[in-house]
Design brief:
heterodimer, A: about 325 residues, Alpha-Beta Plaits, 2 domains, six-stranded mixed β-sheet, four-stranded antiparallel β-sheet, 13 strands, B: about 280 residues, mainly alpha, about 75% helix
Chain lengths: ~325, ~280
């Protein structure tokens, strides 16, 4: 279990982590989500004792990282930044780490087999592809059979096979009762991997909840309506206190397929629930071709949640509407 | 890729076979780091070859040109101080490889990012630096003594026909052992500077500056206080340990000078250890 309590870190005047508190429970994959520059990597480095916090604390199984006697036996970490000497072989990199923890040398070969680097174990790590380097990082993280894993952007730059491998590995490790914290700025990757999400922006906690709850919370209640009489229906919806926009969908999650061949205009309705729209249409004898409550994607939820907290102001202007435009075509 | 094996659980036998990470384990790990990078191995080899090779070359050139045209002042210098001649050429250049190696030993951890892996494995940090210094110090001591005695025996054998010099002569054994001590401490001095600046180019510039440039500049300082400053500089003080003939106005004895060099090194190490703990990695 990882406990972060009121954790803060400033670099000069720049606040990277701002009074952050959260708990990472064992037995599930916890996604650590935020835009670039939100403070994910810094938070992980603070948990791992690489950076010193300006305030607050982070503990792993109740202890600060520096207090762990053989830390790699408790915590495995894959950092985003490279931490391998390009002139050293994969085997020797793992060997020196194993030696610091008093682990037997054959543990190194087991790890090389596990990540599929046995054939290149004696090659210089500098010649490794991104994916091979990432596999070596995973081998180093799992070397001490740790109960707690911190993985910083593990799928960055991986091919689809590598992404799948990491995804299954994380789920498998969590199913064994381990604590798995994995950071990413890829929302949809987290949607399929994480059971629980911690979303941060500008170093502050935005939400910590189950993945489905975050999706539900972030996506506004919108309904997609297709009708040959959009003007009359719009009037009724506005009279009901709702809002209807012609010709746009708020979400792009696959509803386009149903529309093929149907030339009737599409209304995107907010503020009025689907059953009530049906009743309104029926009472005014308006024909409906489609009436679909929209499920949000994690991407929408994420943009909604972090829209106030993007690192760069000009990008943060109107991310939600960009999403609408992007999916309306 | 098999996911069933992905757990990678340590079997109980492996868990029992593992011991607490004592200092010996950390030294073992640091030894693995040193021997597994080609540049370290090559630099050490270069150190031995340059130092012993240049000693032999200069000794041979001197002997083969003995009494040659314009050779008289040099011949006189060799006659008056054969040990200064033997160690002057080889160690004077060979020490530069040690300056580079010492700095690289720690700065490459920062430039390659290995420092993060190292500190995750040893989060108390200073034991990692201590183990590194212990392994490198022992390695340097062995190699430096081999180089010192190799240089002495080769140089004195070549010079023998002109200038007989033996280990049993006054101060010669001390100077030869001392040459090895000097090179060892110089290596640790360079590691300390590297740990302080964490930057390869800056570290090498500083150490080579201290060894080659600062003594020349300090030599330009006028008067008595200039001489005092000069005498207590790390390289000036430390090199006394491998000299037999004391120059006029020498302020420190051989061992005092070596002590001053050691104090400089310890102070730098203390600062490096303090900052290693305080700084973000």
């Amino acid at each position: 279990m990882i406990e972060v309590t009121d954790l803060s870190k400033s670099f000069g005047d720049k606040v990277a982590v701002d009074h952050l508190s959260f708990t990472v429970e064992p037995g599930r994959v916890t996604g650590f989500l935020g835009p670039n520059g939100a403070g994910k990597s810094t938070t992980m480095r603070l948990i791992l004792g690489l950076d010193h916090p300006t305030g607050g604390s982070a503990t792993i199984n109740g202890k600060k990282y520096a207090q762990l006697a053989r830390p790699l036996r408790t915590v495995g970490a894959l950092l985003e930044a490279k931490s391998v000497h390009s002139g050293r072989s994969a085997r020797n990199h793992l060997l020196f780490l194993a030696q610091t923890q008093g682990l037997p040398g054959r543990r190194v070969d087991e790890m090389l087999d596990l990540v599929g680097l046995r054939d290149v174990a004696n090659k210089r790590a500098g010649g490794f592809s991104l994916g091979m380097g990432q596999r070596l990082g995973v081998a180093a993280a799992l070397l001490g059979d740790p109960q707690v894993l911190l993985l910083d952007e593990p799928v960055n730059g991986l091919d689809p096979e590598g992404v799948l491998w990491i995804r299954n590995l994380m789920k498998h490790l969590a199913s064994q009762g381990r604590t798995v914290l994995v950071s990413s700025h890829l929302m949809n990757e987290m949607a399929v991997t994480a059971d629980h999400l911690i979303v941060i922006g500008r170093g502050r906690l935005i939400v910590a909840a189950g993945t489905e709850e975050v999706i539900a919370r972030g996506s506004g209640q919108t309904v997609r309506v297709r009708t040959p009489q959009p003007d009359r229906l719009t009037d009724l919806i506005v009279a009901e206190g709702g809002k209807a926009v012609l010709g746009a969908t708020s979400n792009g999650n696959g509803t386009g397929a149903a529309s093929s061949g149907d030339q009737a205009p599409v209304l995107t309705v907010t503020g009025v629930a689907a059953p009530r729209i049906g009743e309104l249409a029926a009472s005014a004898s308006i024909v409906l071709h489609e009436l679909t409550p929209q499920l949000g994607t994690l991407e929408d939820a994420f943009l909604e949640l972090t829209s106030d907290s993007l690192e760069f102001g000009h990008l943060g202007a109107e991310p939600a509407s960009q999403s609408i435009e992007g999916t309306a075509r | 890729m098999s996911i069933t094996a992905a757990s990678g659980q340590l079997d109980s036998a492996a868990a029992h076979a593992s011991h607490p990470a004592g200092f010996a384990r950390l030294m073992q790990a640091e030894w693995t780091k040193i021997r597994s990078v080609r540049s370290t191995v090559w630099t050490l080899l270069l150190f031995v070859i340059i130092t012993v090779g240049l000693t032999a070359l200069f000794s041979w050139l001197t002997v083969s040109n003995w009494n040659g045209p314009r050779a008289a002042p040099r011949d006189a210098r060799v006659l008056s101080d054969p040990i200064g001649f033997i160690f002057g050429a080889g160690i004077g250049l060979g020490q530069l490889t040690i300056c580079v190696l010492g700095v690289l030993l720690i700065t490459t951890e920062y430039t390659t990012g290995v420092i993060r892996a190292s500190l995750l494995a040893v989060p108390k940090r200073y034991p990692m630096l201590a183990a590194k210094l212990a392994v490198f110090g022992l390695l340097m001591l062995v190699l430096s003594e081999i180089v010192a005695f190799g240089s002495f025996f080769l140089g004195s054998a070549i010079l023998h026909s002109r200038v007989p010099v033996s280990l049993s002569d006054a101060g010669v054994l001390r100077a030869t052992l001392g040459a090895g001590f000097y090179l060892t401490v110089l290596g640790i001095f360079a590691v300390a500077v590297g740990a302080l600046v964490r930057h390869t180019a800056a570290g090498i510039s500083i150490v080579i500056g201290v060894v080659l440039v600062v003594p020349i500049l300090a030599g330009l300082l006028p008067g008595n206080w200039g001489a005092h400053i000069n005498a207590y500089l790390p390289q000036q003080a430390g090199s006394l340990i491998y000299a037999v003939h004391s120059s006029s106005g020498q302020l420190l004895t051989a061992w005092e000078g070596f002590g001053v060099f050691c104090i400089w090194t310890v102070l730098l190490l203390a600062a490096a250890t303090f900052l290693l703990d305080r700084r973000d990695a």
